[in-house]
């Protein structure tokens, strides 16, 4: 992938309409920048129902069950899930909750993507499911209260490949935690949600080299914001996130707008200035010819594509421009709907790839 293309189009957003209630975001129409962020904060704060910290465990079966990889009903733990094969271990909901742990696989608990220490474990942040994920206790402990970042030389690596080590992107060089590629966008959207939902309270929080407590419009430290926007672009919204968002709405009556409308991240903060080679984000799907000169593409992948019931095509701002039902039942070709010239992403299941129409 040429870097010139990557700089502009390092990734794309969205999967499908996330079943938002009719009119939920109607007052945000036409807004951009800080005005949009402030309006979204108002929308996702209104009607919010604060639940107890313990209630997270009862909500997780609806928000974080593996229906997407092994499809075995286990807890979908982003710190132990292996998207390419068997998980090193897994948990059943309500069983082996932490408690004490010494190694991976001992128990699972609740990971605050924005550490509790930054807001003194105060409510409602401490129990807001839209930034709190079920994760292995040991890996959660190793992440500690470090920012998320890019690790080149890890000092510790989890069984699914998540890493701890010094940050190697942007201005910050302290210790960070890097999740696997499959869930980088998920985590980015959790933090973008947090600094939007709680922007009026940021000045009372601690930074932790994560939050920008003196600039509510930005919300995050510049180096962290740039990296998270990149992850948001590289790792598009997945079906798993849409299911989680809907479950969270049922639980506490608010939503993550950057799952419902991923293009709003760019509308607020712009595109990430980082031009990082995204070869490692390949999801084992390819298109020929690429660039595309007609309306027919041939798709191949390292998995049996017939198992995928839907394929989606997105443009550069995350809009779903074409949905194909049962795309691979009678072959591996897809006919495009006379799409204009540009860069697109094809996504089916956990697989995605970019292509250019000339």
TrEMBL record:
Molecular function GO labels: endonuclease activity; hydrolase activity
Keyword annotations from UniProtKB, A to Z: Endonuclease, Hydrolase, Nuclease, Signal
Domain Secretion system C-terminal sorting: 288-356
Listed InterPro entries: Endonuclease-I, His-Me_finger_sf, Secre_tail
Entry annotated with the keyword Nucleus: no
SUPFAM superfamilies: His-Me finger endonucleases (SSF54060)
Signal sequence coordinates: 1-18
NCBIfam families reported for this sequence: Por_Secre_tail
Family: Belongs to the EndA/NucM nuclease family.
Name by which UniProt lists this protein: Endonuclease I
Source organism phylogeny: Bacteria, Pseudomonadati, Bacteroidota, Flavobacteriia, Flavobacteriales
